Amino acid sequence: MKLYIIIAMFMAASMISGGVYYYYTSTQAKIEQLTQYNAILTANVEQMEQVNKQNIATINNLQSSYQQAQENYAELQNSFTAIRRQNNELRDRLGKHELDALAAAKPALVEKILNSAAEKTMRCFELESGAALTDKEKEAKNARAFNSECPWIYDRLIASGVLTPSTSGTTTEDNNGDTNSETSETDGSNPG
């Protein structure tokens, strides 16, 4: 009977040892497999974080580009508004006169006026192209005295600091668009 007990205990111990060994090896394989999965997931998380950072940078870049585009659009709209105003001013100036009747009555006068206007217009193109200012332009007391064909250039040069506004007289514009200058009595100059 002792022998049966010893054999039974040996068999039980062998079965327990085999079960423990099987459990240990299968657990180690699962641990290794889970460790690999964890490494893959960690790498994926790191990659996702990098992609997320890139996406955030791209979104920020797009937002700044959109903001810049909006600013450029607003600047263009302001430029178009100024150009429309200039075109309306030119249309109003030309609409005041019946050039064909005046040319028939006084051709020499019309020729002189048109040549003077063409010369001033050419100077506008020169100024827009970056030409240096003449002394007369530097000393102009108002936009019309600067160049009556493109007075907006004067305003732009004042705004950019290239010219400083004159303090010796004040300029007013009447309803006809004619410029009147009031100078101090000691000045005596007439900006024309």
Structure report:
This protein is 73% helix and 5% strand. It has helices at residues 2-95, 99-105, 107-128, 135-138, 143-146, 151-160; strands at residues 169-173, 179-183. The termini are far apart. The protein is mainly alpha-helical and 192 residues long. It is rod-shaped, with a radius of gyration of 44 Å. A two-stranded antiparallel ribbon has the order 1-2. Strand 1 and strand 2 (179-183) form a beta hairpin. It folds into two domains: 1-96; 106-168, no CATH class. The chain is built from six helices and two strands.
- Terminal CA distance reads 139 Å
Helix share, percent: over 70%
Shape descriptor: rod-shaped
Written as H for each helix and E for each strand, in order along the chain, the element string is HHHHHHEE
Biggest sheet architecture: 2 strands, antiparallel
**How would you classify the helix and strand content by structural class?**
mainly alpha
Query: Spans of 5+ residues with little confidence (pLDDT < 50)?
Result: 167-192
Number of domains: 2
Strand order of the largest sheet: 1-2
Q: What's the average pLDDT?
A: 81
Query: How many H/I helical runs?
Result: 6
Report strand %. 5-15%
- The number of distinct β-strands equals 2
Q: Determine Rg (CA atoms, Å).
A: 44 Å
